[in-house]
Design a protein that fits this description.
heterodimer, A: 338 residues, mainly alpha, 14 helices, globular, B: mainly alpha, ABC transporter involved in vitamin B12 uptake, BtuC, two-stranded antiparallel ribbon
Chain lengths: 338, 327
């Protein structure tokens, strides 16, 4: 009897079923992709999943704090444009300048979104919709067409082996652990540390109930602004990866990631109402989302159908998660009552 | 005597307050024209004003879609309008094939597509309680995807019917014909919104959901209907767009999404729902088009346009929407 109810509780736990779906998708992909476990394809998969994973974790933090950021895609594009505008090919030192300047830009992006959401109390969706066009416009000023210059060592963010001047042991290290994985781990570590500080707790408190958080003396506006700036750091990491990979900046390349990141966060159990969900499971959501895209790719669907299926998946994922979360919460409440 | 004078004075304030946002929008337009005349010579002329109005008519019509959705409350916005219009234009181009006789079929198809997409948006937001912006953004992707699939193996063929071209592209004397369409639609919209039961229900659902529900309004149906109207209107605007351009192409409508929302906000439509004045939206559209003209004249092109629109929307959100005072 007890066992049965425990099993029931386990199945009705959304996180458990999410892991189950992830494992299912993993197995399906492993079956469909030839040489799935070969080193080469593992690295390739990690590389293609990384941007979405980083963007999803950042977006998840904003959503938990009670916001929603529609500007992440164009913010990413802008950062790639800034990086490639500051760098000059053949002058390695400009790479460092680019890092510093772009990080400042990232912080400014987070701060402006944060001021709109937190201090001015404009509905998050609409204010980030407005700022997304400011980022797009500035990115177009810098790079009307895709292109730009990068320094050679910047490829280290994608593939250390391509950097000729890199020492041999670093090249070997990059073959085992791809830089993309390090970027994801860096982001995850940052959040892991932050979630153990007051800031982490406050982000949940403000997202859950901003009124009572305010009454207990939390500076809610500052907390929401910090959430936006943490998100910016994640976007910054994704921008480093993109520029390392493509060696160019593009004012339009980030657009599709906005919606995907939101959808992946929702699949990972982040409630769009704020205050609920964990960033670890946002990562799980991003993985599920990436595996599904991979499976669709293997199903030999023509390229023209990609956008269509992307949109359908988002709606189905969000609707399913919403219905599932609502019903499972009800069933958990019922089981508590009995 | 003193009493009546007092009442009149307060009436003046009331009227001034009601039309404050319209006056601000109008003032902004005048400001831009003056600025344009100073910075770029030969910016202001009757022809220029009429051309601006013609171009802004499309923004204003898309703004009407947004206004209806925003007014119904629930923090609604429709990001799929531009793609809806593109899809209709692309599909009906082949149907019309340059014949007036086929226009009715094209209109029927446009309405059918609009109702279907609008229903999907409405059900997902009003009944499944999903955030409108995320749903309509995903819907925009789906529609873009359908257009991609349709145009993948073939060229977009067909031309609009001549009647549509006359309505959307040609002028009578110096006045562009689309101006007359706007002059017909504006009062009709105002009468529907302010004088009919349905308009009252729409504004009621937006202003106070609970009160509307308790007085017997089915809020979900109203919000769902708002999305259907928005998509259907957008679909019909697609016909006008192809009439104006003469051909249909993949990105013809997507650049109108951002301006349509900005026009609604500049025009004083409250984003919390429950109000909306179409005249304001038209003024907002004219303001945005004038801004575009000015930035193009300065040689800042697309980059300047999007930055400008973004900043305008951001600043106006701060002025109109932000509620610092409560806290």
């Amino acid at each position: 009897m007890n066992n049965k109810s425990m099993l029931k509780r386990l199945i009705s736990n959304p996180d458990f079923s999410r892991l189950l779906i992830l494992i299912l998708m993993f197995v399906l992909t492993a079956v469909l992709q030839r040489n799935f476990f070969a080193m080469k394809s593992i690295v390739r998969n990690i590389n293609s999943f990384t941007p979405l994973i980083l963007m999803t974790m950042g977006q998840a933090i904003v959503i938990i704090s009670g916001g929603l950021d529609l500007s992440v895609g164009t913010a990413l594009s802008l950062m790639t444009c800034v990086l490639t505008s500051v760098m000059k090919e053949g002058a390695p030192i400009t790479g460092f300048y680019a890092l510093v300047v772009t990080f400042i830009v990232a912080m400014a992006i987070g701060a402006i979104n944060g001021i709109g959401i937190g201090y001015l109390r404009i509905p998050p969706v609409i204010v980030t919709f407005a700022t997304s066009f400011i980022w797009l416009g500035i990115a177009l000023f810098l790079r009307p067409t895709p292109g730009g210059e990068t320094v050679d060592w910047f490829q280290a963010f994608y593939k250390i082996r391509s950097v000729e001047t890199a020492p041999a042991f670093l090249k070997a290290f990059g073959e085992i652990i791809p830089p993309a994985l390090i970027l994801v781990l860096l982001g995850a570590l940052m959040w892991w540390i932050l979630s153990r500080t007051k800031t982490g707790r406050y982000i949940y408190a403000v997202g859950g109930n901003s009124e009572s958080a305010y009454e207990t003396g939390i500076n809610t506006a500052w907390v929401q602004m910090k959430a936006c700036m943490i998100n910016s750091v994640f976007i910054f990491l994704a921008a480093l990866f993109f520029v390392g990979q493509n060696r160019s900046g593009d004012a339009r390349m980030g657009d599709p990631l906005t919606l995907k990141a939101i959808a992946a966060a929702v699949v990972g159990g982040i409630a769009l109402t704020g205050g609920r969900g964990s960033v670890t499971f946002a990562l799980v959501g991003a993985l599920i989302f990436s595996f599904v895209s991979k499976i669709i790719f293997f199903a030999n669907i023509p390229n023209a159908y990609q956008t269509l299926f992307g949109g359908v998946i988002v709606i189905v994922a969000i609707a399913a998660s919403q219905i599932y979360t609502l019903s499972s919460r009800r069933s958990v409440e019922e089981s508590r009552l009995t | 005597m003193r009493m009546s004078a007092k009442i009149r004075e307060s009436d003046v304030y009331k009227i001034a307050d009601r039309y404050k946002k319209l006056l601000i929008a109008f003032g902004l337009i005048v400001f831009l024209f003056v600025l344009g005349e100073i910075v770029v010579e030969t910016f202001f002329s009757v022809g220029q004003v009429l051309l601006t109005i013609k171009l802004s008519a499309f923004i204003a019509l898309f703004g009407l879609c947004q206004m209806v959705v925003i007014a119904s409350g629930g923090s609604g916005l429709d990001l799929s309008v531009g793609y809806m219009a593109t899809m209709t234009a692309v599909f009906t181009a082949a149907i019309m094939d340059g014949q007036n006789a086929n226009l009715w079929l094209a209109i029927l198809v446009a309405v059918g597509l609009g109702v279907a997409v609008g229903l999907a948006n409405g059900v997902l937001t009003a009944y499944a309680k999903l955030p409108p912006l995320v749903v309509t953004l995903a819907m925009a992707n789906i529609l873009q995807g359908i257009i991609n699939v349709y145009t993948a193996g073939r060229n977009i063929t067909g031309r609009p019917s001549p009647v549509l071209q006359i309505i959307a592209a040609k002028s009578s004397g110096m006045f562009p014909n689309i101006l007359f369409i706007l002059l017909i639609i504006a009062p009709v919209v105002m009468i529907i919104l302010y004088k009919t039961k349905w308009g009252l229900k729409l504004f009621g659902s937006g202003a106070n959901e609970t009160a509307a529900y308790l007085s017997g309004v089915n809020v979900r149906v109203v919000r769902c209907t708002a999305f259907v109207i928005s998509a259907t209107l957008a679909s019909l605007i697609g016909l006008l767009l192809i009439g104006n351009m003469g051909i249909a192409f993949k990105d013809m409508g997507s650049n109108y999404v951002m301006p349509s929302i900005a026009a609604a906000v500049v025009g004083g439509v409250s984003l919390t729902g429950g109000d909306g004045n179409f005249v304001g939206v038209i003024l907002g559209a004219i303001f945005l088009q004038t801004l575009t003209n000015l930035l193009v004249a300065l040689g800042w092109g697309d980059a300047g346009k999007w930055t400008g629109f973004g900043i305008v929307l951001f600043v106006l959100l701060i002025v109109y929407v932000s509620d610092r005072r409560r806290r």
